[in-house]
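ok posting inputs for the FNR job
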Amino acid sequence: PLLSRILSLADMEAVARQVLSHKALAYYSSSSDDQITYQENARAFTRFFFHARVMKPVSRCDPSTTILGYRSSIPVFISGAALAKLGHPQGEANLTKGAAQTSIIQMVSSNASLSYEEIMATAAPRQPLFFQLYKNSKDEVAEQRVREVETLGYKSIWLTVDALVAGNREKDIRSPWVLDDMESGKTEFHVDTPEGLVEGGDAGFGTAGALVANDDRDMTWERTIPWLRRITKLPIVVKGIQTVEDVVLAAEAGVEGILISNHGGRQLDYSFPPIEVLHRLRQQRPDVFDKLEVYIDGGIERGTDVVKALCLGAKAVGLGRPFLYAQSAYGVPGVVKIIQILEREILTAMRLLGATSVQDLKPEMVQRYLSSKA
Ligand code: FNR
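and the output
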């Protein structure tokens, strides 16, 4: 369909489902076990309702914010997701260009299918890019990667901590061709998996199992964060926090930010939805929001979802699959389109709430409410 017919992120996903190859769709859409967390990530937003204020002047309304000090036109960033080339030949470069055109920020996955250098070369002058780190179990190997991306000009390190082993994603496991392609070198992916595939990789765990094969399973607050601090000057964000307790430990460890995330439901099934964890954090430890920036990702599909998270104290939210789907379906224009859709939806929600800036979004504007049917 014409891009002008795409009105929502759901419309975009529907197109992607038509055009993606079987293996790409299996890898992108899969989540763990019975997909309960995957479904609940999105559904949980439906439990939060607004208390809208009226009779406020809202003709001027600005949804922009900063993330780690970098300006973003809307409080949304691209969460790092692997293998964008599976969906489109230009892969991650579509996301980089789309982000540049709309002034939002892309987090590049450790398992990007273009090299970190190629992606940086695609970026516009002064366009900030963030880097998602899967820490190799060998400190020296991990250090080399961090130094490489810092030298290339990436602006922050997002250390993923919720993927020490791959979740059980049966759709992906039943569709093993991605692995075959990587092993045979048929694809031109940048990801350096062969060692993992041969030595530690478990083909029985699908693409994801192979990709995490070399990762550090023994990270701790005491050891890993100071280690990272020693080897880089970049701000550090911990990605994949799932409890209030761990947010508090992250604040004590002195990191600049945390991303409350369950990896889009791809890791531990029955993990709590991020919007619920954020809500608990707001209730139990409102002080933490002054110590670090809090972000969430998982199941975000609408501007209202974004606004709810901001009301509860998130500085910004990330989206993973929607960006993969958009670039697969239409390349750069698809990426630009979903950002425009989100911007419009966010502006509409803010105005109807009586808010003209992200600072106006307050906890009292949302309430967790179970309708009598729930
Ligand atoms: C991911 N995610 C992910 N996270 C990460 O830290 N490193 C990675 O390489 C990947 N790869 C990846 C691939 C695919 C296909 C998906 C769908 C996800 C998780 C991602 O960063 C993010 O947390 C979720 O995608 C957010 O959920 P939604 O927006 O997809 O619902």
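notes: The radius of gyration is 20 Å. The chain has a mean pLDDT of 91.
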